[in-house]
Amino acid sequence: MAKKHLTAILLVIPLLLGLTGCTGGVNGEGTGSYSQDLGTPIVRGNAFNDAGWTHIDKGQYESAIAQFNTVLADNPTEDEKAEANNGIGWAKAKLGTLKDGMPWFTKAADLSNDAKVGLASAYLQMASRSDMEQVVDLLYKQLGKENENFNYVPRRNTGVSNAEVHAMLAYAFASLGEDEKAQHQIDYAKELNPSWEGTTIDQMGQVVDFLIN
Hints:
By secondary structure, the chain is mostly helical. It has helices at residues 2-18, 45-57, 61-72, 78-95, 102-108, 113-126, 129-143, 162-175, 179-192, 200-212. The radius of gyration is 18 Å and the shape is elongated.
């Protein structure tokens, strides 16, 4: 079984790397702002967060990080701080690997579902049993509230869809030997994306089938 799991890890790592691809477009959220006394001009934190994601969509990851750090440096609200840390996490992941984004995903995960997904993706890539347990905790318990058909709506253009999140969860369940839950999740992922053939979901499904059959 250990050899089978190792083979599955080698199969799934390239798929996880593909999850960090950009899909284009910007989905700005909110108009929150913060200001300081003594006549300091109002700085709109979410405007800088939006600008950061515009840079990410263009592949300008260092410029994106600079925008997010502008938010963090100037007394942001908790939501703005979470959005900025989440953005840095995804920019770092796209510059390197998903693991490179983990410190920032961890800071943002309590308030950002996108950060939960980024953090779960990184744990999935590392692929030990304890990592798989973290994936289940993040996606099934925290994000999904233990509803097996939960709906993940990305706040930002991370490149990871609701269907792909369920496929990721299927892999985690399969790795933990929870075959019935794994089968349900991969079936649901395919239901969410009827054009799943030839996609990451299809490839993830093949790995799940390999593990549970």
